[in-house]
Amino acid sequence: MKSKNLFVIAALLFAAQVYAADVTVDGAWARATAPGQANGSVGMIITSQQDARLIAVSSTAAASSEIHTMTMDNGIMKMRQIEDLPLPAKQAVKLGPGGEHLMLMGLKKPLKEGDSVPLTLTVEFADKRTEKIQTQAQVKSLTGGHGHQNH
Ligand SMILES: [Cu+2]
User: Fold this and answer.
1) Residue 121 belongs to a domain with what CATH number?
2) 75: alpha, beta or left, given left = phi > 0 and alpha = psi -120 to 50?
């Protein structure tokens, strides 16, 4: 009886790993913030093996997290929240400055180079099944310490 239970657990773990491989997140990073800066932006590369959408993001480092896109408005780049982000099958979707990105709203403390920020992404597949993916964003300073941060 005991070994049968173990087998069931092993089978469940195996199934969980198969699902987890549906979506991979690579190179998640967050931009270091200046003191007093309330929000931080996050980039990464998401690859889903089947058609899916990123529908939510959360982080314990911020009061709330949003999916953003950049649009041109009278020649000025503006950020706008979007409800979801399509993840076409087997396509690497790159998030980062200048395009779609994730936004940490209401940071609990400034993001410092070398820190890592925990993130939970929620992805919904075409069959309505959802999956949560945990990742850590490495905080990087893109400006070489000059502090030109206009995000
Ligand atoms: Cu943004």
Assistant:
1) 2.60.40.1890
2) left
Distance from residue 32's CA to the centre of ligand 1 (Å): 14
The pTM of this model reads 0.79
Task: Tell whether 98 is covered by a domain.
Answer: yes
Q: What is the pLDDT of residues 56-96, one digit of tens each?
A: 999 999 999 999 999 888 999 899 999 999 999 999 999 99
State the Cα–Cα distance between residues 41 and 103, nearest whole angstrom. 5
Domain span including residue 72: 23-140
How many angstroms is it from 53 CA to the middle of ligand 1?
18
77 alpha carbon – ligand 1 mean position (Å): 11
Indicate the number of domains in the chain.
1
Say if 17 falls within a structural domain.
no
Q: What is the pLDDT of residues 99-143, one digit of tens each?
A: 999 999 999 999 999 999 999 999 999 999 999 999 999 999 966
